[in-house]
Each structure stands twice: as structure tokens, then as C-alpha cells.
Design a protein that fits this description.
67% helix; 6% strand; two-stranded antiparallel sheet; 7 helices; mainly alpha; 233 residues
């Protein structure tokens, strides 16, 4: 059953990616953007606010499909992560189909705006998205097996640490400018990508995710139709 759900979620995520890529194509054409590093438009408060709202709406939609697809919180999160990863990967696939960009996986892109601008080469979010697809589908697969994972505090801390390190790398230039106005952040362009930190954060995240998914799981206790069982000796 979970495989059929993964298929449906994949169709949804790929369709969302098409829509997202189409919007970006329209924005680039409207503003005459050929390269975000050199030809970004001047700061527009209204458009910036709408873009932040669009990003929030995207996250809500991806979370919603996960909540609708899974039975328990564990699988709901898994389907949502799986959808996010596929959406991110196919976003770049559709852009390559529409406008031939990115020409290289090392082309820079403005990845996100919340809470600060995220910059990085395309290969970085694609690597994270691929990991999310694997982990999300792994969590979803546990639904049919009626198995519940019990991560340790150390595993949770490792996962959070790895994620925080990668987030810092994406927002390092913006963080260095703080406190800064929205206009200043909008004009900000990355100086370099901290590959060493990113790889360390990625490996920590991948290792902790592997530990969590491969750890001994605990089955959900069965409950009788009446909701209780009486054992008579």
C-alpha cells in the first residue's frame, strides 16, 4: 500500500515542481534576469513579501500531502520529506527543460528566503533532496510493517546538529551582515561556499538518519475491537 502512496505523492510533487519552475521562468522573463549573480532586479517590497508567502505556501502544501498520506506521525513526516525532496529535484529538472538552466550543478542559486536568504550551488540542495527522498521513503515503508522507531537523544542531537551546520552554510553571508535591512539582504550576493562545513553537516545528517532508520524498531501493540483485553488465568 505504501508504494502506491509513494507513487501518488511523487506525481503531486513533480506537478508542484512544474508549477514552481514555471513561476520562476515568468519572474525571470518579467525582470529580465539571465543570471541571479549579475542581473537580479532592484528590491521590491511587495514582490519580496509575496515571494516569502509563496515559499510558506509551498511548505504548507508539501506538509499537507504528507499529513494526508500517512497513518501515523512517523509515516506522515516520511511522506512529507519524500515529497519535499522530489519537488526540489524536479524543480531544477523542469527549469533545465524550460530555459536550459542550470547549465551546471555548480551554478549558484537563491534557494530560499526564510528566515534569511539562502545561497548555494545547485548541487547542494539536490544532494539534500536526494537524502530526503531516501529517508522519507524509508519512513513511509515502516507504515505497512506496523513498526515504530524510537531514536535516542544522541541520534536526535546528531541529526539536528548536521541540519544546523548545513543551514549555516547556506545563510553564512547573510548572517555575517546582521543586523541588516531587508534591502541590504536583497542586494547581498554570496562570496564563497563553505564546502568543508557543508560536507561535514551532510555526513552527520546522513549518518544520524541511517542510525535512526536502521535501529531496532518497536511494534505498535495491538488492541482488540472493544479497546481492551481481559486475560483470564
Amino acid at each position: 500500500m505504501y508504494r502506491k502512496k509513494l507513487l501518488y505523492v511523487a506525481i503531486y510533487a513533480i506537478g508542484m515542481a512544474y508549477l514552481e519552475a514555471a513561476i520562476v521562468v515568468y519572474l525571470r522573463r518579467f525582470y529580465g534576469i539571465t543570471d541571479l549573480m549579475t542581473s537580479a532586479p532592484p528590491f521590491d517590497p511587495q514582490i519580496s513579501l509575496i515571494e516569502v508567502g509563496r515559499e510558506l505556501a509551498t511548505l504548507i502544501m508539501l506538509l499537507a500531502v504528507g499529513l494526508l498520506s500517512g497513518k501515523r506521525l512517523q509515516s506522515k513526516i516520511g511522506f512529507a520529506i519524500y515529497a519535499f525532496g522530489l519537488w526540489d529535484i524536479f524543480y531544477y529538472v523542469w527549469l533545465a527543460v524550460f530555459i536550459g538552466w542550470p547549465k551546471s550543478l555548480f551554478d549558484w542559486d537563491l534557494l530560499f528566503l526564510i528566515p534569511l536568504p539562502w545561497w548555494g550551488p545547485v548541487i547542494a540542495p539536490v544532494m539534500i533532496a536526494a537524502l530526503m527522498v531516501l529517508c522519507g521513503s524509508g519512513l513511509a515503508a515502516l507504515e505497512d510493517k506496523e513498526r515504530i522507531l524510537r531514536p535516542t537523544k544522541a541520534e536526535w542531537l546528531l541529526l539536528v546538529l548536521g541540519i544546523c551546520v548545513m543551514l549555516y552554510v547556506f545563510m553564512a553571508d547573510a548572517i555575517a551582515q546582521m543586523p541588516a535591512s531587508i534591502e541590504t539582504l536583497a542586494r547581498l550576493r554570496p562570496s564563497s561556499f563553505l564546502w568543508g562545513f557543508f560536507v561535514v553537516g551532510y555526513l552527520i545528517s546522513a549518518y544520524s538518519a541511517w542510525r535512526i532508520l536502521s535501529a531496532k524498531s518497536v511494534g505498535k501493540p495491538s488492541v482488540s475491537n472493544s479497546g481492551r483485553e481481559n486475560n483470564v488465568s
